[in-house]
Amino acid sequence: MDGCIVSIDQGTTSCRAIVFDKAGKVLGLGQKEFTQHFPQPGWVEHDADEILETQVQCIKDAVSASGVKGDAIKCVGITNQRETTVLWKRNSLKPIHRAIVWQCRRTQEHAEKLKKSSADLFKQKTGLIPDAYFSGPKIKWLLDNVTSKDQLNELAFGTIDSWLIAKLSEDNNHVTDPSNASRTMLFNINDLNWDDELLDLVGVPLHLMPKVVPSNALFGHTNKDLVGFRAPILAVLGDQQAAMYGQACFDPGMFKCTYGTGSFILGNIGHTPQDVHGLLTTIGWQLTGEKPVYALEGATFIAGAAIQWLRDSLGIISSSDEAEGLARSIKSNEGVYFVPAFVGMGSPWWDSSIRGTITGLTRGSGQAHLVRAAIESMAYQIRDIADEIGNSHLKITELRVDGGATKNTFLLEFQSDLLKIPVKRAQQVEATAWGVGALAGITQGLITKSDFENGWECGATHKPQKDREAEYQGWQSALAGASAVAASESLRSKVHVPISRT
Ligand code: ADP
Question: What SS3 class is residue 343?
């Protein structure tokens, strides 16, 4: 073995580690779920120490399954669930509280206030629309609710990449990369610095923040005593940006969509940030000595999670693999729509008051209708985003797709019909882990960027076959209905944020 790469892929529900060879072949894999904590409705937490222990176990499992010796591991890449917020004590590296997860809505009120007072400022400086989703308000919540003033100087903040590097690196470095920093609402994506005005506005002291270094910097060396080998950590990317890299979206205008718990469409927009209504502008990656590559992002919070909900909460399917057969068992949705707004709606709506609804039920509706409506909802949400992109000067001509739910070919066919463009599933099913692994490998000189780019292979292409406009109109009516319910609810509580594209 002439050199291999370890990718650490720290996700929302599980930790994974993969040993890749230089061509992206999986030599060994370790994966383990960890505990999700839901202390109150709408609140989601992770135990950062449990994440670390689980991650270390996965790294050991992957290396052991691959059969490679420690000295064959030439570099490490880290990709991670984004925005999830950890505060720890600098000296002891002990978290002061469980991590507040990206899905958690506890900071909704604070985020709404920031949106009301300073939406334009945040959009211009960070590319983001203030929302409970991002790290800044989560940090402030921890400072207000868990810490005392005299503790403040001892504390450090990090997203999960920073936390893992602090624990896994020999020197306990406190660093992050621009793709992760750009998800905090505190990082200026134009000058690539933490922004004093925004830190002040959100209420976060600068000294808490990690040092931001390029996405392919030397982040430290892995601690051999902990993971069993010493190798340089040479790439860090947030999970969606890693998938965009893994899908080789290197030219402006190339888009990818990852369908997992949520679904995230990201497009390369080159070296200049651009604003499209309802979408986020974020940093794709920034490499040493180079200008940042910006991405346009549409984020939907509930995609495959709707299928999980049908399985785990309603029990109407026993595995997500049953979903496709059930969807195909009926010729159409027969008017049943599922708006999976369990935590509000993300792009392009950014409406946190809206809640999930199912419409169009009849006595003939059953398991297949609900399952089909859940799958269709993943595709409709991406169509909503694609329409906003289409209304700008940008155009999506094809979509590269990956993620757990892309096993479902019905979803991909339906998506292609709705978008009226080819949908291409990558041959490499591990787009996210291989994306960051490849960046580490390129940085180390194990592989060349052109070999990597040329190695991108399409596993399956789905071309538009059917007109779905009538169905799409049905979705829009269902969404409007869900929005009207939210509006009448919030009229009572007087916190209405209307769903509107204008
Ligand atoms: P994440 O990285 O966000 O944890 P994954 O990429 O592992 O997610 O994908 C898991 C998600 O994909 C789950 O939400 C699951 O419900 C969904 N999923 C898996 N298989 C299917 C399928 N055949 N049809 C629809 N959804 C699926």
Answer: coil
